[in-house]
């Protein structure tokens, strides 16, 4: 094919990014950090250290597509901080993922690991691609080349990826295999969230949703509410939202609304979540056409009169525009960054208790830590042991955050940041700066 500049420009690096109304995610992180840093009277040098990602890798990922053409994708991996241990965090595949978003997500991983007390730093990765338009073969080649490009970054003692938006156990298996081929031995501790047979942990897939359920119950207890008297709306019906909805329903809550990309589904008598999971699994993962519910919009779901609202989809869903209409007593952030800083202030004013992402969705990385420990020991735990330990760690983290928030008279979000920053700063002080 003759060289054609237009084709070249369209093919290289980026799919056209859909326009979305959002704040700069890294700045959103820093806004919360600032409040916590003031409370802690953080030294300015520490401030700079902890708000600066330790490394940002951007790599061109060429892939031979099924039609024989070469397409070059942008691959990103950000290591935010390694003071508490090797960096840990997922990889997302999305057409609109940006370096700033990955920087924010990597920082959130640092704080998340510190909040629950797992010995990891924070990292995050992304590839700018639209996986819904790629074949399994193209996705495999993309994943393997991305991994090969980052061989010096990844490693069980260095940086350990995991699934995130649009990545799953199969993708982790390809990362494991590519890395293992290069180091000439099977190294299953290099990724978490992989298939059980390759050294994955029982309970990892459900862990984020389970953690959401555990902290929700802890919050209901604090507010003197019984699960059986509570209604719940869940935004997002992926790995986090569907499991959170299922487990909250098992605890007696009435889940009246859920949503996915196809829209919202409402039933005032409570939805049959197991039936919906079953329906979606037979319908390419989508709830499109689910009959036992009334269709509602995503915006309506967020402003429903419910006790608990669980945004489990993506960033910037509760903003200054819709926060005044949110009626939930508790928001539990299954997603990373679903609430903007401006919305935080409005929700606080309206007396809504927000369980922040760095606590609420930390169940995933907690069981990732268990998976890494099991891989390194070559000894695997029962599901019961995984769940008991997860519940214990999430409960303890919730109580610690709650106490920190009470102590400083701040929201749970700022309480969680204070706790996390204090831990990482203490470790940094002890380690010192290598000169
Ligand atoms: N991607 C998940 C998160 O945002 C899990 C990260 C991990 O297990 O390393 O927490």
Give the structure's gist in a few sentences.
Helices cover 46% and strands 17% of the residues.
Could you describe the 3D structure shown?
It is a single chain. 46% of the residues lie in helices and 17% in strands. By secondary structure, the chain is an alpha/beta fold. It folds into two domains: 24-39 and 54-195, Rossmann fold (3-Layer(aba) Sandwich); 207-360, Rossmann fold, CATH 3.40.50. The strands form two sheets. Strands 10-9-8-7-11-12-13 form a seven-stranded mixed β-sheet, with helices on both faces. Strands 1, 2, 3, 4, 5 and 6 form a six-stranded mixed β-sheet that branches. Strand 7, helix 8 (239-250) and strand 8 (254-260) form a beta-alpha-beta unit. Helix 7 (204-222) packs across helix 8 (239-250). It is globular and about 55 Å long. The chain starts with a helix and ends with a helix. The model is unreliable at 1-21 (pLDDT under 50). Glutamic acid binds at residues 88-90, 162, 164, 192-193, 336, 361, 364-365, 368.
What's the arrangement of secondary structure elements?
Layout: H1 5-11, E1 12-13, H2 25-40, H3 44-51, E2 55-64, E3 70-81, E4 87-94, H4 99-116, E5 121-128, H5 136-149, E6 159-163, H6 169-183, H7 204-222, E7 231-235, H8 239-250, E8 254-260, E9 263-266, H9 273-282, E10 294-296, H10 298-302, E11 308-311, E12 330-332, H11 341-349, E13 353-355, H12 357-360, H13 363-377, H14 383-408, H15 412-431
Parallel strand pairs: 1-3, 4-5, 4-6, 7-8, 7-11, 11-12, 12-13
Antiparallel strand pairs: 2-3, 3-5, 8-9, 9-10
Helix pairs in contact: 2-4, 2-15, 4-15, 5-6, 7-8, 7-13, 7-14, 13-14, 14-15
Glutamic acid is lined by residues 88-90, 162, 164, 192-193, 336, 361, 364-365, 368.
